[in-house]
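Entry, Tuesday afternoon. Goal for today is a structural model of the target with flavin mononucleotide bound, before we commit to ordering more compound. Inputs were pasted exactly as handed over by J.K., no edits. I checked the ligand SMILES twice against the vendor sheet because last time a stereocentre got dropped in transcription.
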Amino acid sequence: MRVDELEEIALRCLPPEVSEYFNQGAFAGLTTSAAPGAWDRLRLRPRVLRDVSCVSTAATVLGHEVATPIMVAPTALQRAAHPEGEVATARAVAATSSLMCVSSNSGSTFEDIAATGVQWWLQVYIRRDRGLTLAMLQRARAAGASAMVLTADTPVVGYKRNAGQPATDVIPAEHQRVNLDAIGLPQSALEHAADVGPDDIGWLHEVTGLPVIVKGVLREDDARMVAAAGAVAVWVSNHGGRQLDQSITTAEALPAIASALSGTGTEVYVDGGIRKAEHVLAALSLGAKAVFLGRPVLWALAAGGDVHQGGRAGVAHLLTELTGDLAHVMALAGARNVAELSPDLVG
Ligand SMILES: Cc1cc2nc3c(=O)[nH]c(=O)nc-3n(C[C@H](O)[C@H](O)[C@H](O)COP(=O)(O)O)c2cc1C
């Protein structure tokens, strides 16, 4: 799977404001552009003379069985990539037995996403208006979300440099944040609460009864802190480089976090710049139970060129091809299943 080709096709199909929104990073974009290269720089140490006549990519995350550890990260404005947006993504994820994390800022309703039969988690931004947040959590729970993913790296939204108009100004309002009932509320109610703390992990669990994952962790001390506060999983992420520029890449941050949590039962996931099966192989070997794709899914949704049709077919193609490539590189590395991926394969 050539994700870079997919990106090229998608960028030709999208209005300039939307491609800028999808691809941009915070400030100078250093962290965004460093991400894929950091995975590329890792070196693999394949095992030989293993019987790899049967290779399986099946995995388990928080007890959910999935056919692939390659999953979909939460991204806003999917309906700017394709009219069916998150519903098209969900159909593809359901068809490939993967899992999807739905953004708080989704442009499709939780009910429409859930109707596809997809396994999904809700990504949570806690707003200044906690009542508004709570109503959204309850709506997601009622629709069938099976975990809450608290995004911890966005107390304020990182500044971006826009060449033109921001995408949110050119996308119809009915394609944005449709699960938040903010009618009549001031804009400030929608702003992110800047005082979110470890106690909110317990709060999220208490009000939803669902397991809580914390997304946006880059340090071992934070990983231990959120696990001690009740998080069942830590999601290593720098938000695709859209928050603090010059943040450490996730390829660099993952090993220390995975070893800090090793043996504790707290699961580790990672995203950021994952574009190839070798990147997935390295991430899983370094201790991640799953990897999540952000921009590649947006590109797959948008790509209306000859090879990919975009929408559901585009996302299904991306997930299927990358999973097929993963099985191939696992065979080359002498690993029959994800349990056989261990840190000695990297280095
Ligand atoms: C256009 C765009 C919108 C995003 N929206 C959200 C969001 O609503 N919530 C969130 O937690 N992360 C959001 N993210 C971050 C992704 O979940 C993920 O961490 C990141 O995109 C992974 O890096 P990658 O794009 O290199 O795969 C967004 C990323 C992009 C590119």
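The first strand starts at residue 59 and ends at 61.
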